[in-house]
Please model this.
Amino acid sequence: MKFISTRGIGATDKTQAMDSAAAIIRGLAPDGGLYVPEELPRVSADFVAQLAQVDYAERARRVLSLFLTDYTDEEITGCIDRAYSGKFDDEKIAPVKQVGDKSVLELWHGPTSAFKDMALQLLPQLLSTALKKTGEKNTVLILVATSGDTGKAALAGFADVDQTKICVFYPDGGVSDIQRLQMATQAGANVSVLAIKGNFDDAQTGVKKIFGDEAIAKELAEMGVHLSSANSINWGRLVPQIVYYFSAYADMVAAGTIKSGEAIDFTVPTGNFGNILAGFYARQMGLPVGKLVCASNSNNVLTDFIQTGYYDRKREFFKTISPSMDILVSSNLERLLYHLTGDANMVAGWMKELNDNGGYDAGENMLVRLSNYFWAGCADDAKTLETIKAVYDEYGYVLDTHTAVAWAVAEAYKAKTHSDRPMVIVSTASPYKFSSSVLEALGEKADGKDAFALLEALECKNPVKAPQGLAGLKGLPVLHKEVVEKDDMPKAVKTFAGK
Ligand SMILES: *Cc1c(COP(=O)(O)O)cnc(C)c1O
Model:
């Protein structure tokens, strides 16, 4: 299987298409586009049915093998084993729970208690293996600017992975207590965690500047280091996510919730469009999926886009209680546009308009195509809190703020369309990661409590105990205390690269 850019490289001239290992090392295509598979593999009904008999690792192996055809079986198995075995607190890795008439796919049993682990445990392994396969001698230094979640998930995934180093910048005072502790206690010989004096934008701008600085690139190259990013545009972050759509389906067949071959819907709390896009891939490959319901918070750019065909980022940005969905430009949407049109020139044109004018009109045809696969809705903070309370009161199940957005939108979808297909809510974080908002929703006082008191207060309400990855932070030594000026970020990166 070869990979091509959504903006043209390899799409028009097939000789320029790349292997997956090369696409994973590169991340972004040289024309600014994103790598996509040249064509999507199709699987049989039997392939899907057979998955019910095997564990998550084997499901992952079967799905990944369809895309990573340049990796050997041993390489893929090794990557999956190092990513998932012993790292998750549920042996099913991504279990499906029945809550009322809905199935909840819990993607937060990994080391950082949020869904980013599903991909960020595997990406570093795929990357490290790609470096070995291609004979690349340089060390890859991953730079991350984080507002909280991604930083820790990337640290946990890259810690002590061969031929890689990772340096994470977060805004001093700009992340929650628990997020700061998660990062500051990260062990590993190849990790660096730095607080910067500034906000998240300063951190992100600083990282972008370093990426764009040729002098730094040259200095690092002399040390045998080259820079890369772990953000969700990398194909190696997307492919692991396809697996759990198949896995959920297989588990539901095994549990008798659905019959083999029956179509189901998924509702996905969406930010950068990576998670839901993986569901689209699963559907195109032959998984019986009806609609993919795209759920947004008050930053509802995608709701408008799917309903009107017009993408408009020129709008107010809201800071919500579901911060991982506070996004106005959903990068992975570009991949969907490519798959729905097959026209790299058209996609490149829209992306240029987005960049130059802040929006684009994808037109009537696109609107029709979108509506074949997607339905979209949004829920604001008040609705989110109300949903957490209602689901708790009725079922005793505690949703996190992101998953609650999905639940609310799934209800709206059902009321509007009267779909009678079984619904899977894709759950992206443990409620303990957002204890303060969740407690508020449940009518408890949260202010004034420190991170651990919040966990304990929520444990009094929730039959599910706090994940060890969060509760266990209490006893861990703080290893990273350094705070740097934002202008000193390049110096810090160079010093770390030379260690
Ligand atoms: C990243 C994240 C999302 C959004 O996922 P995308 O792939 O960016 O759409 C939703 N919920 C949580 C908890 C997340 O961390």
